[in-house]
Amino acid sequence: MKTTKQRFTFRCWNCHKTYTLYREITMKQQLLVACPFCEKEAVVELAPFKREIKSTLKKVTLRGDGDDGESAGFEYDFPDELPTEERKEAE
Q: By residue range, what is the domain housing residue 29?
């Protein structure tokens, strides 16, 4: 699985200030971050920004017919500023 490292801008759920952090995006559905201003921990839900992409691939077959097949994948379409939510502690 390909990972993506880049700088993201976040808006703190507590103090509402914006900050940037360098993060790696993987298959996980959440990012855990901490605001550098108020030091509150936060969660960023990635699922709302996930977009399915389909590509048509030509199948290579040894026998039978050579129908075209579809392969589904995904990519993220992030806004300029990612909203954060309060991190809920497990009870």
A: 4-86
**Residue 47 and residue 19: Cα distance in Å, rounded?**
21
Those residues whose C-beta lies under 8 Å from the C-beta of residue 11, and which sit 6 or more positions away, are 17, 18, 81, 82, 83, 84
For the chain, the domain total comes to: 1
Query: What are the C-alpha distances in Å from 28 to residues 44, 50, 64?
Result: 11, 11, 39
Q: What pTM did the predictor assign?
A: 0.71
91 falls within a domain: no
pLDDT tens digits, 58-78? 544 445 444 444 445 778 889
Whether 19 maps to a domain, the answer reads: yes
